[in-house]
């Protein structure tokens, strides 16, 4: 009897392991395959059976990428856009979240609900007028076209308000007020140090979103010098000659930085990107 | 100094509390204003203007001309629009349903006790989500090459199947695009379900075992009901995401906007930035908005129904 239970147990355990192993392999395989293709010549790729081991073309393929698109320029643009937007979002959202959580002013609830409502609107609804506004501002092919609208983040305000509400004690804020602290000093010296974890969460969500965003940059960035990396990658496949080794080399090297950061900070990444979703 | 501070509240309690209030109010409005000012310019105004543009004929340069409902008639009588709508719906089902079911199964496996290498599995399964949509679409686009040397065709060949025309056939295109969506999102949903599973107290399962419940019964009567809010959340978000599908089809089918793979947002993009038909494009945006509202409401309605 007990042996039977034990046996059944181990079979189901083996099944669980097999399932997770297969899922993990399938999750990693396209990334590995991207690397294999990035190091092989196009002729090896277009062969049956295709190559499954890295080849000698690592440098050649990447040199071809550099000859086709401004790879490092695009990476730099993406870094610039994602970093500035993230910092701006953190500041604007935490300041607004602080106001909603700790200050008393008329119409606070209505304004907060208005912010929540804006989260429901699909971004494509205003796409064309937004493009027209950017044109009128003369911001076409200008990274400001992405950064300035990018700092509008209703979720960020919601997230910050919840965090400040439950982590910054009211007594502390009241005491600071009695001591004559300005509200900005209460925000800067008391609130900001406490909400560093919320900053980390929001920063990861925002940075990844901006780094991976495609539709809006595609609409407002038309000149190669202004391309973010995602728009630039599209330039690789738009070529007349399809060199898959070159295409996947560019794609691989554009993917690697974020994967490395993810592997280093995987706990923080996973909890940030999913907790934010679950709790709201 | 100390004396002064102690005395201060006695001197003018009323005035200080009043100025405190105004101070709060002024800073309150000031601190929330950046969001509202920027939203007014880049969010609210464009939305209202979209509703206006939906009734105009305009190519972005010349004079606008009021045309009533003509743009909507134009869109709704265009077979390609209906094609884009049905494509979007099909890919919504193909991409979303397997994603959610397999996500629950994987979360269940990850949550079983005594699993070693748990964090290794977690990290690997989540990794696709960190990959950009553009990169995913490019890699899978090459894997789904229609020639016989395309990776998926080679795999099919191993099982004795003929190569599939992934790039041009009605179902090939949809399966390819849905696979991209599936691969990028399944791990993300797994982790969300895992968080939900971990919140279910173990005592419930133990009590069920004492009462002689089978594994199937445990899943049916404990896991699924307690996971319901999270399931509803994931269905909701993946539905909204699927209705806005754009990057994968654009990268996969390219500028040809092949009708096997065109989605509603791709149709909108084509109208606006290829055909410079801002009126019909805005009408499409409004129709998409209405579709999203309807589907979201159905979602909420069903969710409320089941929740009882």
TrEMBL record, chain A:
The entry's keywords: Cell membrane, Membrane, Transmembrane, Transmembrane helix, Transport
Keyword S-adenosyl-L-methionine assigned: no
UniProt entry tagged with the keyword Transport: yes
Subcellular location: Cell membrane
Protein's membrane topology: Multi-pass membrane protein
InterPro entries in alphabetical order: MetI-like
PROSITE patterns named among the record's database cross-references: ABC_TM1 (PS50928)
Stretches assigned to the ABC transmembrane type-1 domain: 75-265
TM regions (residue ranges): 14-35, 74-98, 110-131, 143-160, 186-209, 246-265
A Pfam family assignment: BPD_transp_1
Family recorded in the similarity comment: Belongs to the binding-protein-dependent transport system permease family.
Entry protein name: Carbohydrate ABC transporter permease
Organism: Evansella tamaricis
Lineage: Bacteria, Bacillati, Bacillota, Bacilli, Bacillales
């Amino acid at each position: 009897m007990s042996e039977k239970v034990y046996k059944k147990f181990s079979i189901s355990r083996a099944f669980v392991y097999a399932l997770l192993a297969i899922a993990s392999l399938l999750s990693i395989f396209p990334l590995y395959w991207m690397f294999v293709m990035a190091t092989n010549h196009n002729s090896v790729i277009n062969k049956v059976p295709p190559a499954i081991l890295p080849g000698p073309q690592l440098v050649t393929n990447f040199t071809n990428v550099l000859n086709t698109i401004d790879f490092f320029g695009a990476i730099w643009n993406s870094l610039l856009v994602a970093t500035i937007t993230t910092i701006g979002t953190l500041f604007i959202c935490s300041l607004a979240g602080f106001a909603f959580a700790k200050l008393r002013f008329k119409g606070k609830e209505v304004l907060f609900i208005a912010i929540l409502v804006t989260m429901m609107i699909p971004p494509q609804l205003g796409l064309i007028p937004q493009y027209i506004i950017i044109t009128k501002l003369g911001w076409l092919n200008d990274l400001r076209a992405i950064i300035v609208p990018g700092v509008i983040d209703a979720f960020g305000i919601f997230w910050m308000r919840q965090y400040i509400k439950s982590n910054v004690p009211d007594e502390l804020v009241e005491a600071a007020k009695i001591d004559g602290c300005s509200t900005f000093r209460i925000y800067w010296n008391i609130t900001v140090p406490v909400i560093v974890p919320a900053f980390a969460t929001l920063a990861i969500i925002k940075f990844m979103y901006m780094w991976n965003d495609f539709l809006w940059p595609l609409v407002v960035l038309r000149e190669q010098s202004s391309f973010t990396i995602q728009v630039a990658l599209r330039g690789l496949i738009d070529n007349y000659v399809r060199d898959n080794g070159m295409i996947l080399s560019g794609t691989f090297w554009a993917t690697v930085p974020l994967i490395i950061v993810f592997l280093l900070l995987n706990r923080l990444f996973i909890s940030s990107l999913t907790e934010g979703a679950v709790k709201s | 100094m100390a004396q002064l501070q102690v005395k201060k509240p006695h001197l003018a309690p009323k005035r200080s509390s009043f100025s405190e209030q105004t101070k709060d109010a002024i800073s309150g409005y000031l601190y929330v204003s950046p969001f509202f000012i920027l939203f007014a310019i880049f969010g609210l105004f464009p939305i209202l203007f979209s509703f206006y543009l939906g009734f105009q004929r305009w190519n972005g340069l010349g004079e606008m001309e009021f045309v009533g409902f003509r743009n909507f008639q134009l869109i709704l009588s265009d077979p390609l629009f209906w094609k884009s709508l049905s494509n979007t719906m099909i890919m919504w089902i193909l991409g979303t349903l397997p994603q959610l079911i397999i996500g629950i199964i994987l979360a269940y496996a990850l949550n079983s006790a005594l699993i070693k290498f748990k964090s290794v599995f977690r990290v690997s399964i989540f990794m696709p989500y960190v990959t950009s949509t553009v990169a995913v679409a490019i890699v899978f686009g090459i894997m789904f090459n229609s020639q016989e040397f395309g990776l998926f065709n080679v795999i099919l060949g191993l099982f004795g199947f003929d190569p599939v025309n992934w790039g041009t056939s009605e179902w090939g295109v949809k399966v390819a695009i849905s696979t991209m969506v599936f691969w990028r999102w399944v791990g993300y949903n797994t982790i969300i379900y895992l968080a939900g599973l971990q919140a279910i107290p173990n005592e419930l399962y133990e009590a069920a075992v004492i009462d002689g419940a089978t594994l199937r019964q445990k899943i049916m009567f404990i896991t699924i009901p307690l996971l319901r809010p999270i399931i509803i959340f994931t269905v909701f978000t993946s539905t909204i995401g699927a209705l806005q599908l754009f990057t994968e089809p654009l990268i996969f089918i390219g500028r040809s906007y092949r009708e096997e793979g065109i989605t509603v947002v791709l149709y909108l993009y084509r109208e606006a930035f290829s055909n410079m038909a801002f009126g019909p494009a805005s009408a499409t945006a409004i129709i998409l908005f209405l579709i999203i509202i309807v589907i979201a409401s159905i979602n909420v309605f069903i969710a409320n129904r089941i929740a009882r």
